[in-house]
Design brief:
Structural class of chain B: mainly alpha
Radius of gyration of chain A: 24 Å
Distance between the termini of chain B: 45 Å
Oligomer: heterodimer
Helix content of chain B: over 70%
CATH class of the largest domain in chain A: Alpha Beta
Strand order of the largest sheet of chain A: 5-6-7-3-8-9
Number of domains of chain B: 1
Structural class of chain A: alpha/beta
Largest sheet of chain B: none
Helix content of chain A: 25-40%
CATH topology of the largest domain in chain A: Rossmann fold
Number of strands of chain A: 13
Order of helices and strands of chain A: EEEHEEHHHEHEHEEHEHEEHEH
């Protein structure tokens, strides 16, 4: 359980995190979604007591992180898998972490097995691939068998096998009743992994909802339709309150009416439909819609998502 | 819901015995907590193969340097005046390697801090052990505890070989000679204190190259820049104080070994104190 109250971090005049208030609850995977530079990592560092908030507070299991006794037994975190001294072996790295929180060495062997690094336990970390580093970082997070787990962009640089592995691991950890907090800038990844979403842009929490709810609320499903009498259909639909956009190929993208209503309108006016297809809104589009006014650096218009909110 | 539905438990005085029990438990818990931090930092130092390579390198270079200085001293024996021979200190000459140890083990100490800052692993350290000042103290203590026996071994090796060289001129002393054991131990203490200074410098500068260069200048700088200082000031420079720690004969321009150790201890306390303030208050 993580609770933030008006959490704010300023660097000079730049506001990295702006009055963020949220709760990350146990038993589900909460995705922390936002474009790069939105304030995800800063928020996570404040949760771990690494950065001091300019104002506001954040509690982990009801306490400020720095007041936890044996913090690794309460919170396991992976911030940056490459942030590790390369000279030690994987087992050596986990050994000092275990010692620091009074965790037995047997647990080191155990977590190495859990992440599939048993065979390279004695190898220098410096020789590891990024994927192996990620696994080691996850082993470190699991070391204290903590109630709360936090991962910053854990799938960056992983191959498809690794991504699937992490996705299933997150889900199983949440199913065990743990609090799982996972950041990413990849919306598609979040759609497949997270049950709940916390969306951040320019340091502000702009959405806190279940993944399904978020998609439904923030995206307008549209219908692509083609008719023998396009002008008549456009007129009939506009009359019923729909927003109609003409495409160069003669099709129309209709928002504000569902496919049944469009079919009904067409038959009432004796219009022959050639095509009627529901264009489902994806999380990607929902996210884009929500953050397009918030992102610092807007790329050019993406094709196919130009409906306007 | 109204407040009237709540039943208030009357305040009950806590028995005195349970207060002292909880205090004892808290003190016990605090001790375990500190012990864990020291153990973790020792595990860190121990599990890094470069720690052992550095120790081996230090012994080879240090003893080699001691032998070289001893040879160079004895080769000038025939040109030395009777008075020069009188003040010649075969003990400190054969333990010249202590300066090498100060630089090599001091740099090792610097790296225990800067390697973590430069890779970002310091965040894992402070997430696992949020008591940052204790972490820095534990780093200083473990690296000092490591430097002590390594330097002592180097001093012993240098002494034994050096005395064999001096024996040819009947200038050698034995380990039982007054002041020799003290010089050996004080030399190791001096290097341990330099290691503590190294941890402090690492915490203040945080970049390996910058911090290691600074430490080297602090130690060796006294031999170069220090030449321009009046002798009365010069003897307080950390490098010169380290040299003084291994002396048996009092010589001009060097502090008494005991005073030299105290001077180094003051430097160590100041640098680690400053570093712990800085490390505790800034974002990791």
């Amino acid at each position: 359980m993580i609770e933030a109250q008006h959490l704010t971090k300023r660097y000079g005049t730049t506001v990295a995190v702006d009055e963020a208030s949220f709760a990350v609850r146990p038993g589900r995977v909460t995705g922390f979604l936002g474009p790069n530079g939105a304030g995800k990592s800063t928020t996570m560092r404040m949760i771990l007591g690494l950065d001091t908030p300019s104002s506001g507070s954040v509690l982990v299991n009801g306490k400020p992180y720095r007041e936890l006794t044996d913090p690794l037994r309460s919170v396991g975190a992976l911030l940056d898998a490459k942030a590790i001294v390369g000279g030690r072996s994987a087992a050596g790295h986990l050994a000092w972490l275990a010692d620091s929180n009074g965790i037995g060495r047997r647990r080191v062997t155990e977590v190495l097995g859990m992440v599939g690094l048993s065979d390279v336990a004695g190898k220098r970390i410096g020789t590891f691939s990024l994927g192996m580093n990620q696994r080691l970082g996850i082993a470190a997070a699991l070391l204290g068998d903590p109630e709360t787990l936090m991962f910053d962009e854990p799938i960056n640089g992983l191959d498809p096998d690794g991504i699937l592995w992490i996705r299933n691991l997150m889900k199983s950890l949440a199913a065990q009743g743990r609090t799982v907090f996972l950041s990413s800038h990849l919306m598609s990844e979040m759609a497949q992994t997270a049950d709940h979403l916390l969306v951040i842009a320019r340091g502000r929490i702009i959405a806190d909802a279940s993944t399904d709810e978020f998609v439904n609320r923030n995206s307008t499903a549209s219908v692509r339709v083609r008719a023998l009498q396009p002008a008549d259909l456009a007129a009939a639909l506009t009359r019923r309150g729909a927003l109609v956009e003409r495409c160069p190929d003669g099709a129309m993208i209709v928002t504000g009416l569902d496919s049944a209503a469009i079919g009904g309108a067409a038959s009432a006016d004796d219009i022959t439909l050639l095509e009627l297809a529901v264009h489902g809104a994806s999380l990607e589009e929902a996210f884009f819609e929500l953050t397009r006014d918030e992102t610092d650096y807007q790329a050019g218009q993406l094709t196919g998502t130009s409906q306007g909110a | 819901m109204s407040a009237t539905t709540c039943i208030r438990t009357p305040a009950r005085p806590v028995p005195a015995a349970s207060i002292s029990q909880t205090r004892k438990a808290r003190i016990f818990k605090a001790r375990i907590f500190k012990a864990r931090i020291f153990k973790a930092e020792w595990t860190k130092l121990r599990t890094l193969p470069s720690t052992w390579r550095t120790a081996a390198l230090n012994l080879a270079l240090g003893i080699g340097f001691s032998v070289a200085v001893s040879f160079s001293q004895i080769s000038q024996w025939h040109t030395m005046t009777a008075q020069q021979r009188q003040v010649f200190d075969p003990t400190s000459a054969s333990m010249s390697g202590v300066m090498i140890a100060a630089v090599v083990l001091g740099t090792l100490a610097v790296r225990t801090v800067t390697a973590e800052y430069s890779t970002g692993m310091i965040r894992s350290t402070f997430a696992a052990m949020p008591a940052r000042r204790l972490v820095l103290a534990a780093k200083a203590a473990t690296v000092a505890a490591f430097a002590f026996p390594v330097t002592l071994l180097g001093n012993l090796g240098g002494f034994e070989l050096g005395q064999r060289i001096f024996a040819g001129r009947h200038a050698a002393v034995t380990i039982g000679h007054p002041g020799v054991l003290r010089a050996m131990v004080f030399g190791a203490v001096a290097v341990s204190l330099v290691a503590v200074i190294g941890v402090g410098v690492g915490g203040l500068i945080r970049h390996t190259a910058g911090a290691a260069t600074t430490l080297a200048l602090i130690i060796i700088g006294g031999l170069t820049v220090g030449q321009f200082l009046p002798a009365g000031w010069r003897q307080y420079l950390p490098g010169i104080a380290t040299q003084a720690a291994v002396t048996v004969h009092r010589s001009a321009g060097l502090l008494h070994p005991g005073t030299a150790i105290m001077v180094l201890a003051v430097y160590a306390a100041i640098t680690v104190g400053a570093a712990s303030l800085r490390v505790a208050h800034r974002d990791a």
